[in-house]
Specification:
369 residues, alpha/beta, Rossmann fold, 2 domains, seven-stranded parallel β-sheet, two-stranded parallel sheet, 16 helices, 11 strands, 12% strand, Nucleoside-diphosphate-sugar epimerase
Length: 369
């Protein structure tokens, strides 16, 4: 009996010592990876999303982030030690992006304020911090590359800035530390995500192989020949958890990329080879995926039915507009990771491996043939 009581007491103590994480946007590319990393590191993880899905080790919470009352009701008594913001909602204008996305952050922080449990808040934004919002993307006078996380904000409205301001303001009143994480284009799995280059290129390559279409780079000569970098979702997740537990990283904004650089004229051949394709010659002209794939829904549905794929809706597999925005940029985009390195983050992820791991996972999950 004494042994049983001792074991029960030990388990209770372990449970009391386990930290609780609230992942906001738990079904997205960044949120899914963050949740998995937190579970692997022994956290109790709550996954907040409008439509949660089953995820290993994550307790789902359903609520609309734009509904303050619904968020307050859903989060009552959850007592998270840390909050990880990994989502946003795209609106028609930047003014609406600012209003809606700032309110989403504010709604969550207001909802957990009463428990006084939050010790850290992490916010994922991105390189539009340096390149400008969609309405003014890559326009005007931009900072010199590589982009450094110490560079000042652009003199333009940007919902990333509004989100940061909400977090910093709440930290000053509530006493938690914060971190901001600025990835480049994220490679990861999330069906239905609005910004998903990895699955977009996987769907495009699968269709090219299916119908014998040339696997042609859709972007600009500057991207084809210039240096660039990317961020795997797992690398971003490790970075967020590292910042939460590293005192020196408190109240800092960081760039986060894989650590390698490449040129698309090399990477395009690597991706083509994985799918058993020959890359088409590139003549320097832009031919967006939005144009190349605009009539591909019937082709994808037929392919999905024949191969027994899990997602017959191409619009949930591919987001050509976002991939076109990245690959069509007229400037070289490279990101400096020096600040994270100086603070002690030394993780590294080869970008071609990140693509290949994603493609293999998608194939195993019957998302691509």
């Amino acid at each position: 009996m004494a042994d049983a009581e001792e074991n029960a007491h030990r388990k209770h103590q372990e449970l009391m010592m386990t930290k609780t994480a609230l992942v906001v946007g738990s079904t997205g590319i960044a949120g899914s990876a963050a949740g998995a990393e937190l579970v692997a590191q022994g956290w109790r993880v709550l996954g907040l999303a409008r439509r949660p899905v089953e995820q290993h080790g994550i307790t789902p919470i359903a609520a609309n982030l734009q509904d303050a009352d619904a968020i307050r009701s859903a989060l009552t008594g959850t007592r998270p030690d840390a909050v990880f913001f990994t989502t946003w909602a795209r609106q028609a204008t930047e003014a609406e992006n600012i209003r809606v996305n700032a309110a989403m952050v504010r709604n969550v922080l207001d909802a957990v304020r009463g428990d006084a449990s939050v010790r850290h808040v992490a916010l994922v934004t991105g390189l539009k911090h340096y390149l400008g919002p969609f309405e003014a993307y890559g326009q005007g006078v931009l900072p010199q590359t590589p982009f450094r996380d110490t560079q000042p904000r652009l003199d333009v409205d940007n919902f990333y800035y509004a989100q940061e301001d909400e977090v910093i303001s709440a930290s000053q009143s509530d006493g938690f530390s914060w971190s901001v994480h600025r990835p480049h284009t994220i490679i990861g799995k999330a069906v239905g995500n609005a910004m998903n280059m990895g699955s977009t290129l996987a769907a495009y390559a699968s269709l090219c192989r299916e119908v014998g279409r040339p696997f042609r780079f859709p972007g600009s000569l500057a991207q084809w020949e210039g240096l660039t970098d990317m961020t795997s979702a797992s690398q971003l997740a490790r970075h967020m958890v590292w910042a939460e537990k590293t005192p020196a990283a408190a109240n800092q904004a960081f760039n986060i990329v894989n650590g390698d650089v490449f040129r698309w004229k090399w990477m395009w051949g690597r991706i083509a080879d994985w799918f058993g394709l020959d890359p088409a010659p590139f003549d320097g002209s832009v031919l967006p995926l939005g144009v190349q794939m605009k009539d591909d829904q019937p082709l994808w549905r037929a392919l999905a039915e024949r191969e027994g794929l899990a997602e017959p809706d191409l619009t949930r597999m591919a987001s050509p507009w976002h991939t076109d925005a990245d690959l069509g940029r007229p400037i070289e985009v490279v990101t400096d990771m020096g600040k994270s390195r100086r603070f002690g983050f030394t993780e590294y992820q080869p970008t071609d491996d990140a693509f290949f791991e994603l493609f293999a996972q998608m194939r195993a999950d019957r998302l691509i043939p």
